[in-house]
Amino acid sequence: MTMKKILVLLKGYPRLSETFIAQELLGLERAGFELELVAMRRPTDKKRHPVHDEIKAPVRYLPEYLHQEPIRVIKALISTSRLPGFKRAIQALAEDFKRDRSRNRLRRFGQAAVLVAEWPRDAGWLHVHFIHTPAAVARYASQIGCMPWTVSAHAKDIWTSEAWDLTDKLSEARWAVTCTRAGYERLSSLSDRKNVHLSYHGLDLDRFPPFLQDRPPRDGSDGTDPIRIVSVGRAVKKKGYDVLLAALARLPKDIAWTFTHIGGGDELKGLKAQAETLGIAGRMTWKGALDQREVLEHYRTSDLFALACRITADGDRDGLPNVLVEASSQALPIVSTDISGIGELFRNEENGLLVAPDSIDALAAALEKAIRNPAFRRRLGKTAEQKVRTQFDYHSSIADLERLFGQSFAEHDEEARNV
Question: CB–CB of 52/22 below 8 Å?
Fold first, then answer.
């Protein structure tokens, strides 16, 4: 087998909300793979995680909008139009455009042309994160450049994509890997090639060593020492923060609590206004985006983690939010909802408290139960931590990818010899 440089296509890089991707990139480098990164968007976060600085791979950026770099795009289209795969890619674009008459289709094709035109000559494989728009670019680029490609699918990209679009991509990708059984089952149902694989992300547990101190047995009865509730996640609809705030407002008046939110997001302004309306703004702290080390400190100084994930009207949803795995690594008890992959890690009242999504009363009741019972919280947290440390080590997911890439490279070499 010849080890090939892998060109990794990303939607945006680096991103604070995608530590699982950065962790995977570093893991592949440590496993001996040479990577080069290409992103469709430049970073917008003001901070970055330590893991981003440990990744050696260079990164370059495609034009996010074609009109921003017209000369670059035109040059790419001219140069790639001479390639034998260009006609096939144009035909695929025409078929896709019949079903999705959007400017985005044209943009993805233009980005694919730039990707191929500027392709490092020593790269022999294309791997893409997210099976929606990034995979559209990867598919066209693969057709133009006659390059094999593979894809990692996650959550929103699976559930907000049309079935025909997923089927077309899975019919051409060598394989796809996804991180929850729910996602695996959806993708598997749309591919007749048995090329979909399940591999949980897991954590780099060296970055999340065990928290060996006992948390204070706060139960909300002491107004001078309120119970500390934390949540980490972007303020977007699928995270259900409006439901969580409403549930917090319904807690009995005799419970003393504070809530800290960590993360950015478009809905922050509205959530702050909601907190004012509910009369709980004085108990809220909005930290904004923090790096991984700062988040870890909040896990360790909090008593309870809450996240009210939901399925939105367009089908968007989380898979298994990485922050739930992170918090559990610190034996921080979880209150969340039973959707997507969350139930693949947590069992209600065994190692977490799960309620139906969008149920304010049920969420408030679960929060109250956890708050008033410190010993119960401790048992939930310790049981979840044990499961994370035995079943969600990211080395397992890296080993899965190492095996998949190794098999694919060997098969590709054999195909090349037989041409």
Answer: yes
**CATH number of 5-202+394-418, picked from 3.30.390.50, 3.30.360.10, 3.40.50.2000, 3.30.70.3400:** 3.40.50.2000
> Residue 78 corresponds to which tokens in the numbers above?
């001219």
Residue 299 buriedness (CB in 10 A; 0-12 / 13-18 / 19+): buried
3-state secondary structure (DSSP) of residue 28: helix
Q: What is the pLDDT of residues 119-146, one digit of tens each?
A: 987 888 999 999 999 999 999 999 999 9
For 240-255, how does the pLDDT look when each residue is reduced to its tens digit (9 = 90+)? 999 999 999 999 999 9
Looking at 3.40.50.2000, 3.40.50.300, 1.10.3720.10, 3.90.550.10, the CATH number of the domain 227-391 comes to 3.40.50.2000
Per-residue pLDDT for 417 more than 80? no
What angle, 0 to 180 degrees and rounded to 10, lies between the N-to-C axes of helices 103-117 and 133-145?
A: 50
What is the three-class DSSP state of 263? coil
Name the CA radius of gyration of the chain, rounded. Answer: 23
Indicate left, alpha or beta for 140 from its phi (over 0: left) and psi (-120 to 50: alpha): alpha
pLDDT of residue 415: 78
* The pLDDT value given to residue 230: 98
